[in-house]
Each structure stands twice: as C-alpha cells, then as structure tokens.
Design brief:
about 170 residues, mainly alpha, 8 helices, about 70% helix, cell membrane, DoxX family protein, transmembrane, DoxX-like_oxidoreductase
C-alpha cells in the first residue's frame, strides 16, 4: 500500500467524524428544545425576539434540529440535513448572536459558524463511504429505485436535482 492509496482511502472515510460530531450536536440541541421545559423556554425566547408564534417556531426548530442530527449522524439525506442546519444556524446568527460579535463566551456566533462550516462540508462532499447512504444507494440503483422510475417517466428537470440532495 502506497502513501497515496492510504491517503485516498482515509479521505473516503473523513466525513464520519464530522457527521458524528455535527449530528450528535444537532440532535442534542433539538431534543433539548422539544423537552417540556426547553420547549416553554424556547417558545418564550422566540416570542421575545419577534419570532412568532413562538411555540410553533420552537417546535419546528426543535424537530428540524433533531431530525437533521439523526440524518447527519447516520449519513442518509445528508445534504437535506446540511441545508436544514445552515438555515437554523443562519437564523440564530441573524436573530441572536450576530450583534454580539464573534466570541462565543460573549454570546457571539463563533459556535454557529463552526456548525455552518461542518454543514457546508457535508453539503459539498456528501456523507462519505461509511454511511447508510453508501449501503442503500447501490441496492436502490440495481432495482431502479425511485430515481430510475422518475428517469423512465420523463419527469421535469427539477426531479434531476433529487440525486444532489442524497
């Protein structure tokens, strides 16, 4: 095994630690928003900063973060999850952390920016080889899967975007 082949093999596995940390972080934050006390606090906070109705948006944010966390961790629907993370964190920066500067200890956007960077990495690079997506995709393609059916039915060009979201 040469150094070049080892580097290529390791590069194929490099998304796993990123998915594990980003996924578990988002899952933790989503679940804490969905717990009764967390939901009440988040809803009140959202109402106070003008995101109304607070309870509805707190539920939507909690579920989005939790589901994005699970999908990211497992490595399926990774790009959809990454976009969800980008949206929630951009909103957090715009509404809460942006005016406080970069420093996380002062309530700034340092941590949010790290989450955004991780989500961008997965959006651009996909879930990697060690993922549910990598296990399921070849089987779906052999059977034609939903994408095969869409291709045979001559659907709109919009449906061609679906593989990019995998």
């Amino acid at each position: 095994m040469t150094l070049t082949s080892l580097e290529a093999q390791l590069a194929n596995h490099s998304a796993l630690p990123l998915r594990a940390t980003l996924g578990s972080t988002m899952l933790y934050h989503g679940i804490s928003k969905l717990k009764p006390q967390g939901l009440e606090q988040t809803a009140q906070f959202f109402d106070n900063i003008g995101i109304k109705p607070g309870r509805t948006w707190a539920l939507a944010t909690g579920w989005t973060e939790a589901v994005a966390g699970v999908l990211t961790f497992l490595g399926i629907g990774t790009r959809v999850a990454a976009v969800s993370i980008l949206v929630t964190q951009a909103m957090a920066i715009a509404k809460v952390h942006g005016s406080k500067g970069f420093n996380n200890q002062a309530g700034g956007y340092e941590f949010n920016l790290s989450l955004i960077a991780g989500a961008l990495g997965l959006l651009l690079g996909g879930p990697g080889i060690l993922s549910v997506h990598h296990v399921v995709q070849p089987r779906a393609r052999r059977r034609g899967g939903l994408l095969g059916l869409l291709r045979r039915q001559r659907v709109s060009p919009i449906s061609r975007i679906v593989p990019l979201l995998a």
